[in-house]
Amino acid sequence: MEESIRIQSFEKLPSAKEFESMIEPRNVPAVFNGCIKDWKAFSKWNPSNGGLEYLQERVGSCVVEAMLSQSAPVFYGDLGRHERVPLPFSTFVEFCKQHVQNKEGRPGACFESESHGQPGSDSEHGYLHLEDAPQQIYLAQVPIMNFDNEERVQLGTLSKDIQTPESLETKALASINLWMNNAQSRSSTHYDPHHNLLCIVSGCKQVYLWPPSASPCLYPMPIYGEASNHSFVALENPDFSVYPRAEQSMEFSQKVVLHAGDALFIPEGWFHQVDSDDLTIAVNFWWQSNITSCMSAHMDTYYMRRILRRLTDKEMDQLLQKTRIAKKMKRANELPSNGQAGVGKEDSKEKNPRQKTILQELEPAAVHVLHELVSLVHTSVSVPNQDKPLLQSTSVTDFAAEMQDKCEKLVTAYLEDDPVAKLLWGTESHTLQNVFLAMAHNFPRTLETLVLHVLSPVGAEVLTQKFDEIDQQTAEGERRTFFEVFYSAFDDQSAAMDSILKGKELFALQAFKNVLDKYLGVNLESLNLKG
């Protein structure tokens, strides 16, 4: 776990200025121990101190929107797996009392015989009864205050028992909500589009948190869906055959245990799963982050492109790093001293004395790489006659057709699956520079075949990175000479450049598709959209 995203604990609630300058900008969760013990709610709502009776008296007549789920004790946020049902708050309080009685071994009252079917009863209004699986009910996000829509407020009376923490006094709050469960429950893994301060009034919650960067391990639902902020993975029983990256999810998680009086700051975008003990009551505050509030609408497309580009670059790096290749190659001590090692002959170009001796001047490591590279090219293509050039020069038309074919195929090659890319990746750029010079002088048709026909998209990406290293490590004159010699091996130099660049773009396209899948839950191949 990176130290920069490790959760910190504080014994005292910071001032609004301290919170805004030291806590909020980090975008990392923080725990504030015992910071709401001075609330009236802390003592008056406590179930072990007559809190249920107090709540029933204050807001028992209010009708709230309850979450009903047959998957309880796990409550999933997507609409397909739960219902929102109207419920008198007094009825939920009775659920809580019954649960307490059952745990203490006392039989619960049967309210059905007294009220079922009677005029004015809950059933007449379509409300739930105790026989309707009370443990499948969870009061989630019941508004105490809603600053955007006051009509949604259902428990406004309770606002007198709580107070806005000092840290949030300067914030433009979006809403304040009640969360209350009568039996043990778990909310499915999700993130929120607002900053959140979760305050425990009674009971205990255990919270697992993941930074937004862990999204690929949690398989977020598609960005275009109604539950795009939820994870596909049921972490209590994950199917790793369907969600293989989820096996690493716990490596990125942090666990926090909150007791009555504690509060937890959950920044926007942080995934969290919340486990609640029996009869736990909490209040949360939501507000928009400074970053989000400062994003001008006319800049959205620019921000989106910048972020997608940065994620794509990161994904490209990860694809290349999937297999660690040792930079130092084993020296080919058993190769013949002339360094040719069965490379073969090519008579497609006349060699001058300098070109003939360059092979003898290669160091053993370069000879080994040259031998491996030429062998891989020969293996990858059909060679009907070794006395002829490996492949005839490719016309622009043939090249365009081949690139079109490549573009139509899904790029799936990774570094560990691509021997040519592996070899290029594991070779020092200076050594590779000498190898390419030797190929351009002695085996130009093989070099042409490598670039135009054998080099995969991941190989093109590796090759351009090696070219960048050569640019940085060599003097201007030597650099210019190298590229002149390299491209002189091609009858059509523009085709060679296009092949490398288009291969690089195909690799970037695969990385971009991975970004859409990992971070946005969008699989382009599975979409069947007609424009």
From TrEMBL:
It comes from Quillaja saponaria (Soap bark tree). Residues 344-353 have a biased composition (Basic and acidic residues). Residues 131-302 form the JmjC domain. Belongs to the JARID1 histone demethylase family. Residues 106-126, 330-354 are annotated as: Disordered. This is 2-oxoglutarate (2OG) and Fe(II)-dependent oxygenase superfamily protein. The lineage of its organism: Eukaryota, Viridiplantae, Streptophyta, Embryophyta, Tracheophyta.
